[in-house]
Every structure is written in structure tokens, then in C-alpha cells.
Amino acid sequence: MGNIENTCMSKRQRLDQRAENSQRLPMNFNTERKSFFGDNTLLLISDSHTISIIDTSTLKETIVAEGNAHAFYLDFHYRKGLIFWSDYSAGTISRIRYPSNKSTTAEVIIHSQTPAGVAVDTDNDVLYWADRNLHTISRSNLDGSNTVLLVSTNRPEDIELDIANGWIYYTFNGYDAIGKIRVNGSEIQTIVDNIGTTQNLALDFYEDRIYWTENGNRIVRSAFFDGSDSKIIIDGISDGYPFGIATTKSNVYFSTWNKGELFQLFKNNASASNRLIYTTGTTSLMSIKIFQSTESECNSYVEIQNGEKRSTGYHTDLEIDIPISDDKID
Fold first, then answer.
1. Handedness of CA 291, 46, 163, 233 (dihedral sign)
2. 318 CB-contact burial (10 Å; exposed 0-12 / middle 13-18 / buried 19+)
3. Model confidence, pTM
4. What is the tens place of the pLDDT at every residue in 110-162?
């Protein structure tokens, strides 16, 4: 039998759309929460005490983990079926297997003083995280072992990875800037400064842009990866403080932590109003990740016979039954 590979997406797009065109996960609706609008995207969110997945097309939610003290930032390893998050108040980083055909509980894998941003390198199975009050960015294996301190820097907050080019991007809490360092901890650079208090950031590999939220100024801003062309994307958030942010090819999503609301903005229609698509009702809404999206450069797939393989290491992760092919395509 041949292998199915997407021949239209670049490596950077595959990094950004790790879950694209995979099977839809089963959802159980939680009637205590409300969604208003959908666009065929699954969003992984943290709302202080709960980690959930929101299906924006069916208006349903699945709770992945509950009982956190202050769930802050999160990320996931789709192929291995692992979701990671930091709990700022508990001083922990945890992970849980999802989806799973049996009951699972969260596993604390790292203890740190004030853990903030977490990011997963799915190419090399490495976890990166920031600690705000320790002023550090570190990395470890996916189970928390073999911890390595990469750099000491001013109050790092959120972090995002550009593994293809070997960079870690991060926000500074209270220092109103965005920086980047090499994944080995070298070449520390400030690429954007003189901005408002930054929180969450997202790397958009479709446009080679950074998107970030400025809590104090109540705006969302964007710039190219080198910091040029900095501009306000969303302004006038009058009654909410923006925190989480995520992007797809066509959309920008952002949350307001104090209102517990999630909004969507179309990239190609900057004059359009933000659409409220979800609300927690009472709790703070923090980090957002694109867990699965049906958007793609094209929907053309071809069957590659065994004798025509262009990649090595093809395998199926039987535990979650999702076919995977590596990114080493000529």
C-alpha cells in the first residue's frame, strides 16, 4: 500500500499546521459554556483551572484536564498524543495523554518557581519552557528529564519555536519587548521594543510574521520575524485585556483573560469587527493553540507508491491511530 503525503505544503506550513487534515476527534458538549460561531478549527485553550478543546464548527467542547491552580500557557505534541501546560501558582509543568482510549490523569513532569510559556519541538521531541521570576529559559526531554538551562534573561513570559531556522521567540514580562535566541541559548537579540506589556505571542509561518497581545494597551500587534513592519492589528478592546493569541492562514484568534472571551478576526478583512465565538462565562481565558485546522494551501493529495517514497521514517503511531510522515522531504 502506498503512503499518502501532502505535496503542496512547505515545511514551515507543516510545522504550523501539525494536525491538518487528520481525523476529527470526538467531542462532548459542556452546556455550562457557550460558543457562538465556528470555522472548522479545533482550539486548545486554558482557562486558569481547565484545559479544553473547542470545536468551533460544532460549537462543542471537550475538557482534557481540570483542577489546576492557575493553568497558564500550553502546547502539544500531536503525533505522540501529549498536551503540556504550565501552572503558574502551583509551580509545575504537567502533561496528559490525549486522545486516549482509557482514563488518564495529568502527570507533573517539572517543578519550577513560576513557570510560564511552554513550547514543544515535535521534530526532536524536546520541551522548552520559561520561568518568569527565575529569569530563565530551559529545555528538557518530553518527560521532564535531562533539563538544560539555555539562557538567563529578563522575566521571559511566552515562548514560540521556529525550529526550521533554529530560533526561540519570547516575550518579556514588564520589559515591553520581544526577543529571540538560538535553540542552544546563543545569539540573544531584541527584535521589537518600546511596546506595551506583552503576554502571548504566535508565529505565523504563512506570512512570516509574529503576532502578540499587549495587555496594558489592550491591542494586538504584528511584525515580521525580524521585527520590521510593526503595526496594530486589533485596537479598541475597551472592556477586556487581551492575553492568548493564535493564527491560521485566514484567521487571528485572541482571548481576554478578565472577561473569559475568545474572539476571531479575518486577516483579509481588517475593517471587520471581531467575532465573539466562545466564552467561559466566569473564569479567565488564558492561552490558545491551533490544535487542528482544515485550512491548507491546497487540498490536493497524491498516493506515493513504495518505490516512489520521497521521505524516510514513515510510521503510524498505533496508540492514537494517526498516520505520520516526517518532514525530511527533498
1. positive
2. exposed
3. 0.78
4. 999 999 999 999 999 999 999 999 999 999 999 999 999 999 988 899 999 99
To which residue does cell 490544535 refer?
Answer: 291
Of residues 19, 54, 57, the one with CA closest to residue 324: 19
CA-derived radius of gyration, the chain: 19
CA 320 vs. chain centroid, Å, equals 20
Please name which of 97, 95, 89 lies closest in space to residue 49, comparing C-alpha atoms. Answer: 89
Burial of residue 262, with CB atoms counted within 10 A of its CB: 0-12 exposed, 13-18 middle, 19 or more buried: buried
Instruction: Decide: 82 and 61 in contact? Cβ < 8 Å.
Output: no
The sign of the CA dihedral 123, 267, 265, 222 is: positive
**Any idea of the CA torsion for 200, 205, 209, 214, to the nearest 10 degrees?**
-10
Write out the H or E segment, with its range, that includes residue 232: strand 231-234
Alpha helices, DSSP H only, in 164-320?
none
CB 191 within 8 A of CB 227: yes
How far CA 38 is from CA of 19, 23, 34, 60, in Å, comes to 18, 18, 12, 10
